[in-house]
Amino acid sequence: MSEQQAQTRKDIESRIIAKAWKNEAFKQELLTNPKPIIEQEFGVELPAELNVSVYEENSTSLYFVLPILPQIEGRELSEEELESVAGGFIGGLITIAVGVTPFTGDIVKATKKLTKK
């Protein structure tokens, strides 16, 4: 991928998930010591005080991450900005939150499976 093609958080998470599915040693390291893996894959250095957690879903577990509400320039976001941020964009710029917990499944399919009787 060229430097001109920006990778989104979703792109990087997808790459990490695919790598974990293909490489058991990588997956185990990601689960037991995620911070250096996330730093390497995102190409950033995370603050020392930041905790990073990665959870592996199974047939009876579904994890949903509620991101921190962003504050821009000391002001509250409008409804339109909140909707945009929820989709991963602020003013057209892609943001990467430093609290990363990959969601590895399709929430609709997972919810249907868990609620089927």
UniProtKB/TrEMBL annotation:
InterPro entries given in the database record: CN_Hdrase_a/SCN_Hdrase_g_sf, TOMM_pelo
Protein name: Nitrile hydratase-like protein
NCBIfam families in alphabetical order: leader_NHLP
Organism domain of life: Bacteria
Residues in the signal sequence: none
GO molecular function: catalytic activity; transition metal ion binding
